[in-house]
């Protein structure tokens, strides 16, 4: 047979492999079989006491609502113990906001008309994945509509949500921000790369190795077509505008990508930088600040002003019993002033155990990691999230309430 009549002889090796892969994929889809990139986990129910703390009301009040048939019907366990799913907690929020209109903001904190979408970029650094993870989930538990975006091509945040995309690209559709930022015909709508999570009100744009394609294409255009960092980063702003009506807060987990990081800083309304209270880690964070400054200066030189609502620093993996670390925290407070969050996230076996299970403490019960360690870790995490939520409230022109509530809850746990 002449060569021209045999297509397989005209193919390169890579083209032949890709053709065979496409054929197999099509056959699998015809049979209704496709790879599953998530573990379809479910979120546990929350006890009446936990729900009371989350909503800031008494347990007896919630119990009476249930007896009177008001609000969602909780599940009754042994000895008549009531428990609620997160969806039911959000239904309770809606009911309480309607029944007690003067406290509507307390129960239903979603942004109102005229309040802008809050986009918090968590800079790459010590425990930045953990910080992004707990912040996104903590916001969702408090009733915010949250979108988490993973810009790590290794998908470290995505794995914590039960997603794992091991390959470079996918034959059905893009699965990461690459799809919404792509320069060519592969570009898709922002909504098409958003996935659900097991937290009601919390969605995710996973991080995959597709992001490496975006970085490569951006560098190529940077060298050959006079593309500038701000030219690439404006795509992140435009993509988020497509879906801003559906969310109150976006949490962006920055990776190490140059153009993706520029996009995260351009889109942000607030930036959170993490630092471990050890001198090499503080030095590393300081170098990251030079990089941060460089990105912002390039955006400004392009004629676009950068006015963050806040730029804050968070001490993570803090051992308060370590004298050297205490000294480091004290000096950071002197150097950074009010820009350093008051709360620190303590080094915790409970957080570490949850991490090893690819879960957060919000997903586990105290008995799974030890009650004392669980309560101590939850206190430090909730205090940190409370400060961030009060920052959001301040931007929206609302009175702060979360830090005081977290302090009361911490007092109960201590007593």
Count every beta strand, where a strand is a DSSP E run of 2 or more residues.
10
Structural class: alpha/beta
Uncertain runs with pLDDT below 50, 5 residues or more? 411-415
Mean of residue pLDDT values: 89
Q: Report the principal-axis shape.
A: globular
Q: Estimate the helix proportion, in percent.
A: 40-55%
Structure description:
Helices cover 49% and strands 10% of the residues. Strands 6-7-5-8-4-9-10 form a 7-stranded mixed beta sheet, with helices on both faces. A 3-stranded antiparallel beta sheet has the order 1-3-2. By secondary structure, the protein is an alpha/beta fold. It has helices at residues 7-10, 13-30, 48-55, 59-67, 86-99, 104-107, 128-141, 156-160, 177-181, 210-224, 229-243, 258-267, 279-301, 323-336, 349-356, 371-395, 402-414; strands at residues 46-47, 75-76, 82-84, 118-122, 146-150, 195-196, 202-205, 249-253, 270-275, 310-315. Helix 12 (258-267) packs across helix 13. The protein has 2 domains: 31-108, Multidrug-efflux Transporter Regulator, Chain: A, Domain 2 (Orthogonal Bundle); 109-414, 3-Layer(aba) Sandwich (Rossmann fold), CATH 3.40.50.300. Strand 6 and strand 7 (202-205) form a beta hairpin.
Features:
415 residues, alpha/beta, Rossmann fold, 2 domains, disordered C terminus
Topology of this structure?
Layout: H1 7-10, H2 13-30, E1 46-47, H3 48-55, H4 59-67, E2 75-76, E3 82-84, H5 86-99, H6 104-107, E4 118-122, H7 128-141, E5 146-150, H8 156-160, H9 177-181, E6 195-196, E7 202-205, H10 210-224, H11 229-243, E8 249-253, H12 258-267, E9 270-275, H13 279-301, E10 310-315, H14 323-336, H15 349-356, H16 371-395, H17 402-414
Parallel strand pairs: 4-8, 4-9, 5-7, 5-8, 9-10
Antiparallel strand pairs: 1-3, 2-3, 6-7
């Amino acid at each position: 047979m002449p060569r021209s009549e045999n297509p397989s002889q005209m193919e390169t090796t890579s083209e032949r492999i890709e053709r065979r892969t496409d054929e197999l994929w099509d056959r699998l889809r015809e049979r209704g079989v496709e790879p599953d990139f998530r573990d379809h986990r479910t979120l546990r129910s929350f006890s009446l006491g936990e729900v009371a703390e989350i909503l800031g009301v008494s347990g007896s009040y919630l119990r009476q609502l249930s007896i009177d048939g008001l609000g969602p019907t909780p599940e009754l366990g042994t000895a008549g113990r009531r428990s609620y799913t997160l969806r039911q907690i959000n239904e309770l929020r809606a009911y309480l906001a309607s029944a007690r209109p003067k406290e509507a903001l307390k129960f239903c904190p979603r942004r109102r008309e005229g309040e802008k979408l809050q986009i918090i970029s968590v800079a790459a650094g010590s425990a930045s994945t953990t910080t992004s993870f707990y912040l996104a989930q903590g916001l969702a538990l408090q009733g915010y509509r949250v979108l988490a975006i993973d810009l790590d091509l290794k998908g470290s945040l995505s794995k914590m949500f039960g997603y794992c995309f091991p390959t470079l690209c996918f034959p059905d559709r893009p699965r990461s921000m690459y799809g919404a930022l792509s320069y060519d015909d592969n570009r898709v709508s922002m909504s098409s790369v958003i996935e659900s999570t097991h937290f009601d009100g919390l969605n995710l744009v996973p991080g995959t190795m597709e992001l490496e394609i975006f970085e490569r294409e951006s560098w190529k255009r940077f060298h050959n077509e006079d593309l500038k960092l701000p030219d690439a980063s404006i795509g992140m702003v435009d993509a988020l505008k497509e879906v801003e009506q559906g969310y109150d807060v976006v949490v962006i987990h920055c990776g190490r990508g140059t153009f993706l990081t520029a996009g995260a800083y351009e889109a942000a309304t607030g930036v959170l930088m993490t630092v471990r209270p050890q001198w090499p880690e503080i030095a590393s964070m300081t170098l990251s600040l030079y990089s941060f400054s460089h990105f912002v200066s390039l955006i400004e030189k392009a004629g676009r002003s950068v006015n963050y609502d806040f730029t804050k620093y968070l001490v993570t993996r803090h051992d308060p019993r370590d004298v050297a670390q205490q000294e480091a925290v004290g000096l950071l407070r002197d150097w950074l002033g009010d820009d350093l969050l008051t709360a620190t996230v303590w080094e915790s076996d409970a957080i570490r155990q949850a991490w090893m299970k690819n879960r957060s403490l919000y997903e586990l019960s105290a008995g799974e990691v030890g009650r004392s360690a669980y309560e101590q870790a939850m206190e430090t995490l909730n205090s940190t999230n409370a400060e961030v939520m009060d920052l959001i409230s301040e931007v929206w022109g609302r009175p702060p309430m979360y830090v005081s509530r977290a302090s009361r809850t911490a007092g109960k746990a201590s007593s």
